[in-house]
Amino acid sequence: MGNLRPMGLERWWVLVFLAPTLVGLFVGAFGSIFASVGISFTDWDLLTPPTPAGFSNYAGLPDDRLFMRSLVNTLAFAGLYVPLTVAISLFVAIGLNRSIPGLSFFRVAFFLPTVSSPTAVGLLWTWIYAQDNGVLNNMITAMGGDPVRWLSRDVALYSVVIVNVWGAIGGGMIIFLAGLQAIPKDYYEVAALDGATAWQRLWFITLPALAPSMFFQMVLTTINAFQAFDYIYILTRTGNGNSTMPTLVFSIYRNGFRFFRMGDAAAQAVVLSAMIMVLTVIYFRLQKKWGGQP
Amino acid sequence: ETEISFALWGSPQEAAVWASIAEAFEAAHPDITVNIEVSDWDGYWEKLRVQVAGGTPPDVFAMDAPLYPDWQLRNVLLDLQPYIDADPSVLDGVFPVTLEAYQTDTGLFGVPRDFQTIVLYYNKDMFDAAGVDYPDDSWTWDDFRTAAAALTLDKDGDGTTDQWGAWAEVYDMEPFWGPVIWSHGGEVVDPASGQTLINSPEAMAGFEFIQQVWLEDQSMPTEEQLSQYGWDGLLSGIAAMGFSGHWSVPEYAEAGLNFDVAPVPMGPAGRVTGVNSAGFVISSDTEAPDAAWEFVKYAISEEGQSQLANIGLAVPILEDVAQSDAYLEQPVQINHALFVEALEYAHMKPVFRGYEEWSGAVGDSLNLAWTGEESLADALDEAVALGDDALARNN
Amino acid sequence: MADVSITALDKTYGTFDVLHGVSFDVADGEFIALVGPSGCGKSTLLRMIAGLEDITGGSIAIGGRVMNDVAPKERDIAMVFQNYALYPHMTVAQNMGFSLRLHGAPKAKIAERVAKAADVLGLIDYLDRMPGQLSGGQRQRVAMGRAIVRQPQVFLFDEPLSNLDAALRVQMRAEIRNLHDRLGSTSIFVTHDQIEAMTMADRIAVLRDGCLEQVGRPLDIYDYPANAFVAGFIGSPAMNIVPAHAAEHHVTFGSDVRVPVNNSYTGPVQWGIRPEHFELVPAETPDAIAAVAQRVESTGSDEFVMTAVGDVRFDAQLANRPGVKQGDQIWLRPDPAKSHLFDVQSGVRLT
Amino acid sequence: MADVSITALDKTYGTFDVLHGVSFDVADGEFIALVGPSGCGKSTLLRMIAGLEDITGGSIAIGGRVMNDVAPKERDIAMVFQNYALYPHMTVAQNMGFSLRLHGAPKAKIAERVAKAADVLGLIDYLDRMPGQLSGGQRQRVAMGRAIVRQPQVFLFDEPLSNLDAALRVQMRAEIRNLHDRLGSTSIFVTHDQIEAMTMADRIAVLRDGCLEQVGRPLDIYDYPANAFVAGFIGSPAMNIVPAHAAEHHVTFGSDVRVPVNNSYTGPVQWGIRPEHFELVPAETPDAIAAVAQRVESTGSDEFVMTAVGDVRFDAQLANRPGVKQGDQIWLRPDPAKSHLFDVQSGVRLT
Amino acid sequence: MKRDTAADMLAFALLLFGALCMIGPFIWMIATSLKPVAEQYDGRLIPITPTSENYPRLFEIIPMHLLLWNSFKIAAIATFGQLLTCSMAGFIFAVVRFPFRNVIFVILLVTLMVPGQVTAIPQFVIFKFLGLYGTQAPLYLPAFLGGAFGTFLMRQYFLTIPIELAEAARIDGASLARIFFTIYLPLAKPALAAFAIFAFMFSWNDLFNALIYLPSNLEKTTLTVGLALFQTQYSGQWPLMMAASLISVAPIIIVFFLAQRHFISGISMSGLK
Ligand SMILES: Nc1ncnc2c1ncn2[C@@H]1O[C@H](COP(=O)(O)OP(=O)(O)OP(=O)(O)O)[C@@H](O)[C@H]1O
Ligand SMILES: Nc1ncnc2c1ncn2[C@@H]1O[C@H](COP(=O)(O)OP(=O)(O)OP(=O)(O)O)[C@@H](O)[C@H]1O
Ligand SMILES: O=P(O)(O)OC[C@H](O)CO
Ligand SMILES: [Mg+2]
Ligand SMILES: [Mg+2]
Q: Which residues surround ligand 5, an ion (CB under 5 A)?
């Protein structure tokens, strides 16, 4: 990490440069973090003044069947989504960092799903997964198989992961592409002389040098996994805004903004944030071990 | 010069009608301006919640009766009783059942704007093609089942159904399973005692009937199948019958369907349908309560209701208007009177605190039965358990 | 067998010609020093031998096999990069052991070889550091270490000692040469240090502007430079080269300075004499040139005197610090046996 | 006024002490060379003077003003980085002109100064190149150019000539010294090149392991090194330092070798003699040491002979290439006036 | 260095397969948007009677051009704000040491973890208080207050730029601002291009805030809100919906296309020895 120590006038520049962020932090985000923690110790319906609730909102969580279900769903989802997204987008980026014909086409192709708003493409996926005349089932029945109920309780997890990964590869790809650009060619030259195979170059040079991007991408993907909403909602929603595969944000959203139980919602949000933070710390460690810059 | 804001859910077309109502209102009240805000259903509530929590709700906004208690109990609605006490004639001629939902121990915090009774819609062309007689007021649920089976077709013979006898929304009780349970003598919920009642033997009988049509006969598309076709099976031309309120009329007409309506079939306990109403509420934070009330008053007046009747989305709450040409002689020619007549055997859609959460819990659980993932009994047990949880949480 | 054979090698970057038809052979086990002015193409040539740079024309063979299209990793070459190119995310030990690890060497063996190299290079205390925490000279030594643990067929060194202090350089010089002899590998060593080139190499190749000027044994090049460029380039301080007229075993230049030379060529020439081949003599000694000391630098052991005879500038290096002062009038006698004559036009040596 | 005054300077990286209480003053307009073994803290010291590195303890003053907390850009300093640190996205000309541009100099003036520097540095043809398209030496010259166009109060050079060939170095040496004299600026120049230090600097500061060992004029340091370390470090090839016993104007060592010295100290000592202070003499000359040539290297002008007397190794540098061969038995006479004696324990010079 | 052609070909084949998976749904989307409503459920990829009528119809039903323009304007301003403020903060976090740096950075990261709805209400109150409710300002002003995602992204990239460049510039007399604008920003072009796309996309696809802050009349609101209204209304009409979706995606694709060539920096980081 850079350790340039500002002196004299430079100190003012540090302030100027950070000012927007600090204002944003204090005015918006920062307040709401503390607010969330605070609210989690109260009962509050948003409209009438909150009443203190101690730890009861947290204590109630294990008994909340819907919460526990969404917790399990979320963990299962994240466990599949994070590694798949990071790995695939990394490989795509490495592939697209070469000089191959049709590069622009490929970049656009892989990025398309990312730019498209879930509301626009999510519907398309309901069609792909549809039970009758769905694209997938049509293919399966054409080959003589039995149609699969892609969005039923048991299969929905995988179907939803696929769509989310599909939608996230492009984003990861451009982060990695940018990161790949910053790796000096020298390292590859030395490695080539040292006798490294392409895989070894990838493993020993590219990945470690990509550590900052990787760290970023891991943290971000994890956060996204724990907050995934749009596609899941569109694909698995049930009549009243619920889902056959509710996740944690679902639960938070419904408790807080549908049912005005801000205390419960905040407690769940705190639990969610804590889980993400634990994972972030683990990534930090892993990365340090790998020798990169956090 | 006072400005009031009025928010509602609906389509841009609906907003246009409201704009013309507002215009007429403004003509009569030159010192008041009405700003109309329309959003789609989800967006409407989302926006409203932020506005209300942020302390700046619209002055007047639309309300769905079942959700009304939740909002009312949060002290964000203005008590209209004093205005009504000042001018009791305002509510003259309003169908009493529609008012019921808004009446509370502490006052009247909303007034109905229109109401919706559920009737049976059917596609005449499909009936004609299949040679099945149109439904009439003699129909029992068994007749319905037979007809539905006859109307379920695999037209191109590829082994998959491409026309179903009927479709219904499975999730919310309003259009289908509520009337079925009631007409089998069951009850749905008792908010006062915090009990969900759908696992009584009577209610079970109703659900079993649904399961027969749905899963055994496969005369109705699953939810997944519906989602693929844009939910409304009648509209998309894949189902011959459907249960809905008046709100479907303009859509079906625009889609060029050749359709009409019939009463919901009779069950062992007679004919029961559901009725629900949308209403107006005024924010307790409004700076212009009088102007807001003036507008509401105008909207439920004969003038306002007549204009509203004309869009054909709902049934007016004033008996006079409901009997008038404004309602009965709409451009789309079907049996409009049926919607009013249905009031006689209509059961009010339950209105209680926590309705939204309860209905979600129950709907999700029941859905497992309709997809075949769980047995009906198990699904009902889960529905009752989760439903009671939700009721408990809200009381 | 790892002789390196370079034939008519051309290299172009865009429109810029870097190498023009360079040809020379390096015998198996030979140690060649590659010297030449900055930017003449030395690094480029090394990189081409390593396979890191495309070959515009000509060919490179190692051990008799043409390598133009062979991947670097197939060439069994180790290279020390001029800019070190250490892996920033690996410790010193990992940097040095990396290639052995790639080749699947057992851990113990890697550790042993790394330790040995680190010992030679004075890096024992730094094995767990990251490159970012090293001084310039330490980094250069790591780069060196990375090459020597490999024990490849061919070593390529690109100014590997330029950031080291004198004592360390002397020591490293001996170590590298020992290593080379022990492994019997072939080495090509780019340096700008005369002493390095002269003392370490079996042969020196002098490059100028992408052309090979001379290849030969160090003393041959020093004593018989093929042309004025090589004469001027090899030896430090550089040879004095003066336009003159040769006739009958002497040359004349300036207004009428006349010095004896061991060469009977007649005609206009460039006369060359190295600074160390002047002797400081008493006034009026026969064949001595009278000059004025314009600037005197002392290197400790020697005195380096910049003088002028009329318009002509001479440098002289005088052993034992005789104590010349700026402005002194001195007499310098060039050694006739050490004079060189070069063609005026082509610069080619005249014998 | 830009005298630099360094007082009790300490520097620690984590737990690693790099500098320990370094103090010295550089007078306004003075040219100081900073030398020392690789990793001794030279670059660190320069970076601290420039304001790039925190000061752990002590202070740095420039022109009488304590600079510990003054931003680099307020210090009016130019620095050549050991690793160049060229801006990769700017051409050579832009790199060189950058600081003038920052100071709002008019375009014409920038162009003129850049052109002039480029001329001196032989970079005229490369002004539009990107750093990535340059050779190592060219990059180093650009780094140099970036500093000299500035004409600041204080120059800091970190081994600025290490990648240049001999001819260019000699030329650059003179140019830098000229520039320094012309601008009257103060210069601190890190180098590992003895000749550079000796010939360019007004004074030399010798650093070892973060401690200042000696500061003094070049010849003083060469002739009177304060201790055995400085003696061994300054001068190339390095001084021979031999454990011996001194008594009555001579020292004895080995089995019973005895040589005269101009020093009357008595007791165990380290005897030092520079390789160039041996004379090759005929057999049996009085006071000569009989030795066997174990390895002979020729640097062109001189011959460098590594010899051994019993267990004791000596290096001798003999002018005019007398033609010693490996294995020859030779007689070397040390110059008694050039002998040095150092304390056995502390290494301090004994007079 | 020599290219490894076999590896290139393998990469090409894999990428081609991947790319087809990625764009498959879009091909379906385009095909559907070219079908007449009558064919929407026929399960064919190629329309029997292709028609482009859905597009003009879309523009008749909703004022697409206004919605597009509103969305574009907001997204462009927001993107600029994000690029500026996030890269400034990222630069400071990556390069400068100052008290509480890590603490502040971690807090910033934590804000990423807070679900967006949590901040919505305080934010609403502030904008209401500022009298900006009902204007487009709440949709782009926050972009000028940095953001965890962009700051984090830019910081990670700036970390890969050798610190010596900043040091050299400092000695050359550059202020931190100059170092940022003349050294770091130009070198971070690939990351900036990537971030620009993200920022544009976030703004472009933002439904929640547009819904809350903008009046719902179709002249003033954004494309997302317009499409949401439209979707509930025309839910059974796939060709029309697909046409609408395509139009909503097109501008970002164009932005991406323009930005993607900047992914390649063209400068090798070889200023260092
Ligand atoms: N960031 C760092 N962390 C820890 N140790 C460091 C760091 N930077 C430098 N050092 C150590 O400090 C010592 C002094 O380094 P410095 O770069 O000043 O040496 P130097 O005298 O310039 O050497 P050279 O001649 O090899 O360039 C070295 O031993 C080096 O390993
Ligand atoms: N990528 C490139 N594009 C254009 N010209 C280049 C490129 N790389 C090097 N050159 C030029 O090619 C010439 C030879 O470069 P090379 O690095 O081989 O020189 P060198 O002999 O190693 O010099 P030095 O001793 O200074 O390192 C130089 O003039 C350099 O400017
Ligand atoms: O040098 P390349 O282009 O083969 O890329 C190196 C990759 O990291 C190996 O897959
Ligand atoms: Mg080079
Ligand atoms: Mg250094």
A: C 135-136; D 43, 82
Neighbours of chain B (3+ CB pairs under 8 A): A, E
Q: Please indicate, yes or no, if residue E113 is contained in any of the structural domains.
A: yes
Domain co-membership, D72 together with D175: yes
**Residue D219 and residue D151 share a domain:** yes
Regarding the beta carbon of C83 and ligand 2, being less than 6 Å apart is answered: no
Provide, rounded to the nearest whole percent, the portion of chain D with pLDDT above 70. Answer: 100
Cα separation of A91 and A84, whole Å? Answer: 11
**Residues with a CB atom less than 6 Å from ligand 3:** A 94, 98, 188, 198, 201-202, 206; E 4
- Measure the CA–CA gap between D326 and D330, rounded to whole angstroms: 10
Find residues 216-235 of chain E whose CB sits inside 8 Å of chain A. Answer: 224, 227-228, 231
pLDDT digits (tens, 9 = 90+) for A237-267: 776 667 777 888 888 878 877 787 888 888 8
pLDDT in tens, A94-139: 988 887 788 888 888 998 888 877 777 787 787 788 777 777 888 8
Q: In this structure, are D305 and D223 located in the same domain? A: no
Asked if residue C282 and residue C215 are part of one domain, the reply reads no
Give the integer Cα–Cα distance in Å for A276 and A284. Answer: 12
Check contact B-A (3+ Cβ pairs < 8 Å).
Answer: yes
* ipTM above 0.90 for this complex: no
Counting Cβ atoms within 10 Å, is residue C278 exposed (0-12), middle (13-18) or buried (19+)? buried
Q: Provide the residue range defining the domain that includes E170.
A: 53-270
- Is the beta carbon of D191 within 6 A of some atom in ligand 1? no
Q: What is the CATH number of the domain that holds C224?
A: 3.40.50.300
The pair of three-digit structure tokens given for residue A285, joined into one six-digit string: 């460690």
> Contacts of residue D69 in chain A, CB cutoff 8 Å?
7-8
Please tell me the distance between residue C135's alpha carbon and the centre of ligand 5 in angstroms. 5
Any domain includes C311: yes
Token couple for E42? 């026929």
What the block records as the tokens of C57 is 């024309």
Question: How far is D105 from A178, CA to CA, in rounded Å?
Answer: 35
How is A117-146 classified by DSSP, letter by letter? -HHHHHHHHHHHT-SSS-HHHHHHHHTT-P
Let me know whether C223 and C275 are in one domain: no
Q: Choose the mutation target among E28, E118, E211, E241 for the interface with B, i.e. most B CBs under 10 Å.
A: E211
The residue among C231, C250, C273 that closes a domain is: C231
pLDDT computed for residue A293 by the predictor: 47
Measured from the CB, is residue C137 less than 6 Å from ligand 1? yes
Q: What angle do CA A192, A193, A198 make, to 5 degrees?
A: 20
Distance D161 CA to ligand 4 centre (A): 13
What pLDDT does B29 receive? 92
Residue E127, domain member (yes or no): yes
Question: With an 8 Å Cβ cutoff, are D70 and A5 in contact?
Answer: no
Quote the pTM value. Answer: 0.86
Q: Is the Cβ of B71 closer than 8 Å to some Cβ of chain A?
A: no
Is residue C176 one of the residues assigned to a domain? yes
* Alpha-helix residue ranges (DSSP H) falling in A1-64: 10-24, 31-39, 56-59
Whether residue C300 is found in the same domain as residue C255: yes
CA of C39 to the centre of ligand 4 (A): 7
Please state the domain count of chain E.
1
**Do D258 and D221 fall within a single domain?**
no
> Is residue B273 less than 8 Å (CB to CB) from chain A?
no
CATH at E217:
1.10.3720.10
Question: Which residue among C78, C102, C146 places its CB closest to the CB of A200?
Answer: C102
Residues 148-167 of C with CB under 8 A from D: 158-159, 162-167
All CATH 1.10.3720.10 domain ranges of chain A, comma separated, are 65-290
The answer, for D122 touching chain A at a CB cutoff of 8 Å, is: no
Residue B36 phi, psi dihedral angles, 5° rounding:
-100, 135
Domain hosting C302: range is 237-344
DSSP secondary-structure letter at A60? T
Number of compact structural domains in chain D: 2
Domain A65-290 sits in CATH at: 1.10.3720.10
Do C269 and C207 have their domain in common? no
